[in-house]
Design goal:
Elements lengths: L2 E4 L4 E4 L2 E4 L3 E6 L9 H12 L3 E6 L3 E3 L8 E3 L2 E2 L5 E5 L6 H4 L1 H8 L4 E2 L2 H8 L1 H10 L7 E4 L5 H7 L5 E4 L9 E4 L2 H7 L7 E5 L7 E8 L2 E9 L14 E4 L4 H13 L4 E9 L2 E8 L5 H7 L3 H16 L13
């Protein structure tokens, strides 16, 4: 074993892997400045500090990106951004996603280790990209058709098993942009073709308004709960009044959740899985999953699991240096 010590820099190296006892962990929040940081973001900061690391919540709207080959690439709140060992991204955006998370792409180009990177977030945020990738890798989904013109509505409804059907916009979260349609008349009245891209999806009656949220970090399931929709609602999202109870998913359910996160190249993600007559199917994969309800239902320290792997991830990437110092003024 090779052991190199450098107490002055508070670092040590074992078997060629750089370990850093005190890291700087950033949490990148995309919430509006009119709102406080989310409970999840605050807890991530608290868990990082509890492990002896420096941690700070950054608000995306306070960043400036600069391109003149002389200044730092990033200013935060009017000052050059100091170096951080890893940044945990929390991209709570649903519109113009590629533009909204350009900051994440720039950080990636600067060589900052990101815990969920730009391209993985794009794939998870776009429901069409998600189903394309999951289907390619053989991960089970409800029957789904992407609609681009009104002439195909009747055929698409038949292909997904008839009414009722689920209609989804390509972008949305917390159940927004997801609607159930009971008839052809209702469906024709609902669809607006100025933005002609919709997902028409099979309604899984067998699930009876229930699905699972399975939380995956570093290729492992760290917690899961069954979500039950409130009376009169088909969507089980906690934000819409759903109730979460602890559950131990089957090996098959855990496997498809892990595969779904890995297929989208996410470091961590929340996978919504529904039980159908033919077995479990993946509804969505979330790159910015909430976890407070999951922690309350199960007692699992999800934030701690995210921070632990983010630190491990940063240690593995710490030897990579950008071509020039883009993060701090000279």
């Amino acid at each position: 074993m090779i052991l190199l010590l450098d107490f002055a820099k508070n670092k040590y190296r074992i078997c060629g892997v750089l370990k850093i006892s005190h890291m700087k962990v950033g949490i990148l929040s995309f919430r509006s400045l009119s709102n406080q940081a989310s409970e999840e973001e605050v807890e991530l900061k608290r868990e990082a500090k509890a492990r002896g690391h420096v941690s700070r919540i950054f608000r995306a709207a306070k960043f400036q990106m600069v391109y003149d080959r002389e200044s730092p690439w990033f200013f935060y709140n009017g000052k050059p951004l100091k170096k951080y060992d890893v940044i945990i991204t929390r991209p709570s955006v649903v519109r113009d996603v590629d533009l909204s998370i350009a900051l994440i792409e720039q950080m990636e180009m600067a060589g900052i280790p990101l815990f969920n990177n730009y391209h993985s977030i794009l794939k998870a945020k776009n429901k069409i990209k998600t189903v394309q990738i999951l289907d390619h890798y053989g991960i089970p989904l409800p029957k789904t058709v992407v609609l681009q013109r009104p002439d195909d509505i009747a055929q698409a409804a038949k292909m997904v098993g008839g009414f009722p059907v689920i209609v989804k916009n390509p972008f949305g979260s917390f159940g927004n942009g997801v609607t159930i349609m009971e008839s052809m008349r209702a469906l024709n009245s609902f669809l607006v073709w100025d933005k002609p891209l919709y997902l028409l999806q099979e309604y899984v009656k067998y699930s009876k308004g229930k699905d699972m949220r399975i939380f995956v970090v570093n290729g492992k399931v760290v917690g899961a709960m069954m979500r039950s929709a409130k009376k009169g609602e088909f969507r089980s999202n906690i934000e819409l009044g759903g109730i979460g109870t602890p559950i131990d998913p089957t090996p098959e359910e855990k496997s498809i959740a892990i595969r779904a996160v890995q297929a989208l190249d996410l470091n961590y993600g929340g996978v919504d899985v529904m039980r159908s007559k033919t077995g479990p199917v993946v509804l969505e994969v979330n790159s910015n999953p909430g976890f407070k309800a999951l922690e309350s239902a199960t007692g699992t320290n999800v934030a701690g699991a995210i921070v632990d792997y983010a630190i491990e991830f940063a240690e593995r990437h710490h030897n990579y240096l950008p071509q020039y110092d883009v993060m701090e003024a000279s």
